[in-house]
Amino acid sequence: MLKLCYNITMNAKHLHLAYGQNVIYDDCSFELEVDAKVGVIGVNGAGKTTLFRVILGEQPLDDGELKLPKTRLGYLPQEILIPDDQTAITVWDYVAAGRPVDEIQEKLNKEYEKLAQYPESVAILERINQLQELLDSYDLANFDRELLRILEKMQLSDLCDRKMTELSGGQKSKVAFAKVLFENAGLLLLDEPTNHLDVQTKQFVVNYLRNYRGMVLVISHDVDFLDAVTNRTLFLDKASHQMKVYKLNYSGFRRQYAEEKAAAEARITEQEREIKRLQEFVARARAAKRSNTALIGMGHQREKVLAKKIAELEQRAPASGRVEMRIDPAKPSGKVPLEVQNLSFAYPDAPALYDRLSFGLTRGEKFLIVGENGVGKSTLLKLIVGQLTPSSGSVILNKNTTIAYYAQELEILDPRRTILENITSYDFTDTELRAMLANFLFTGDDIDKKIAVLSPGEKARVALCKILLQRANLIILDEPTNHFDPETQKIIGENLRDYSGTMIMVSHNPAFVEQIGITRMLVIPKRNPDTTHPELAVIKNYSHELLEYYYYLNSDLI
Length: 558
Prior knowledge:
- With about 550 residues, the chain is α/β, with parallel strands linked by helices.
- It has 17 helices and 18 strands.
- Among the domains are: about 260-310; about 340-400 and about 470-555, Rossmann fold.
């Protein structure tokens, strides 16, 4: 692990950033210790991912200064993109690239060649020392051993020879996380790192980060993960555009923040009472007879005090917007909206994901699909909606069934088009569409933003808005809570619980699943590498105890 200088901090002074009239940060200052484990908290759109982009040097500030520890950065983004020139890269090579040994060695050789020409150059010697220290930090003697250890702990060792482009979205995220851990950086930036982690992998990551000798900044809506890992909370207030560091984990921050809000409300209420008393006294003094000089004199004095009190009156923080949604199918489906009959499917040159899988759904049922990353959960959803073709068997939809599909990687959005263009529907007027977008916190000029410039959380709100506008009677949801804050997750869960149509859902979020009211669950087991014949999937009547059983005892299934 890197040797760090513990007097180095991250120091932000008077940060200001705005996009036109949209202010993100307004004169923000904070300081973090170099070994701090920091939860970066705020509602969607508060500027959390933007702060990471500032740290990475991808987003310039309008004003202010951000001083960083002099160490390497490791970054895990929410969205994992494989460059066009790396489409053939394997999982092993992708993770190994986190420590670019060959690249550093090549630079070191060139510096030695320069040193031969200019043997007294102090600058060349300094660069050689820096490169050698970097190379030493990569621990070349244990390079392969450490790489394999991380892959095994992340339950990825059986994917070493697979191409990155062949992996599911969840698998890509886990591999990218493994690469960040392998980089051995002194400052880690993790953006929603637990979206695709099962219990065992998450526990490994928790223990790894707890003992990490460096600074960790993590954006996450996973409260348990934040409480387990962090000892600081950096709160970004979207309403005031301010930042504040709390020397507490997430739950401690929530308690202190609630106390601060209550105390502020009590102060403001008392200030308002005092102002009202002064106003009433001044009004009586103004109405007094001229002969009552004493009262008039006191009225003038109190008027000065009143003006000062009004000038000093604290302002209540404006409330953050809340997503508002309503799910209402335009028409009912048949009694059996969907049947899957003897379904088999395999990708080219890969074992079958399932063999003769059959099940049917009854109207109004809420159906949960669970299984380890890569077993074919998202693939099954794509087969149902017709994006993929079965190897054999069939998916039969009732003639009255209408489908809305929320894809895990938000593929239903066109990044080249604006928010409004992405949800345009002949069934709604422009005014109705704008009203719906306002319910999802997009107002004014926001609706003209291209999808490509939005944060993952904002994209998720657009995608959710789009599927609700379809008013379908069969909703298919692939990881619907990945990019939402806890409050928005709760709102979505309450609405989905009351949804009268049929639902199929893939989710790693047990608390959210419990809120929905699941009726049955399909467990897709991990393929046995010793046989090309897949084990049978199992359908169970849902209960909370059953979910806990699979979640805790068979944690590779969730």
